[in-house]
Structure formats: C-alpha cells, structure tokens
Amino acid sequence: MWSGCSARYSTAKKLKLAGICDIAAANRFILEVYLPAHNARFAKPPALPESAFVAVADPVKLCDTPCVQEDRVVALDNTVSFERISLQLPESRLRPHYIKAHVRVHQHPDGGLAVFHGPRPIARYTADGKLDHVLHRLENGIERMRTTGASAN
C-alpha cells in the first residue's frame, strides 16, 4: 500500500546518493532513470482500445462547471444583487419580469457573471456588471445565448 509513497522518498534519497544537487541534474535523472522505471512498474494497457475522451456537446454549458453558484431572490426593481453589484435583468419572452423569483448567480473564474432561473440562463454579465449576453428563444424552441453589446443602464 505504501510502496508508491516510500518510492518517492527513495527517489529523493537516490538523488542525494548520486550527488545530484541542482535542478537540471535532478530533471535529467527523473527523465532518464526514474520515469522509465516508474512507467515500467505501473503502466498498464487500456481496458478499451478507443479513446476515453469525448467531444463536448455544448461548450456553453462547460463554462458553468468551475464556477461559484449562489442563490438570490430578484428584487422589486427586477435586479439581483451580487457582491455589491446590481444586475439588471433584461426583458424576457418567457416572463414579463422575475420579481421575487428565486434565481442562481454563477461567477466564472474570469469574473464574468450569469443569472439562471432554474436550468434557463436569463443573462450574462461582465465582471463589472454590464450586460453581456441576452437569452433569445428561437422559433424552434431551442434556447441560445447571443452577444448584444448592450449595457446594464
């Protein structure tokens, strides 16, 4: 069970015993000695011949994975407050307003924000709270986000 952990310590000891004191020599040792031995010991052929990687069906949904999500209630002026920023919700074909609706605010790693009502995105904002994308319902019923360049005034 602990052979992997003790192997790491023995690698450090091997570096010391070999008189390796600088990073370049240590990197050379790892590439030429340690990695081939490690791969020979632990590498296994794949269980299935095809690739385990799959294409992303909807890249827009992928950006929602590594984000902070917080629930909010829409205020009487159809805004949502998030970290001292007031996000004005745009008009929607789905509802006349979102007053008192429970929504979810997503904060993405780049600072961008998105507001969702259930699974549906309402709007996307830049990090400073300016409206970036507005939800539009297409004739065939598919929901998409499109850039409008409008500002949240």
Structure, described:
With 153 residues, this protein is an alpha+beta fold. It folds into two domains: 3-42, no CATH class; 59-147, no CATH class. Helix content is 25%, strand content 28%. The chain is built from three helices and eight strands. It has helices at 3-17, 23-42, 59-62; strands at residues 68-73, 79-82, 85-88, 102-107, 113-117, 120-125, 131-137, 143-147. The protein has a six-stranded antiparallel sheet with strand order 1-4-5-6-7-8, with no helix packed on it. Strands 2-3 form a two-stranded antiparallel ribbon. The chain is elongated and about 70 Å long. The termini are far apart. Residues 134-153 have low confidence and may be disordered.
Secondary structure layout plus pairing:
Elements: H1 3-17, H2 23-42, H3 59-62, E1 68-73, E2 79-82, E3 85-88, E4 102-107, E5 113-117, E6 120-125, E7 131-137, E8 143-147
Antiparallel strand pairs: 1-4, 2-3, 4-5, 5-6, 6-7, 7-8
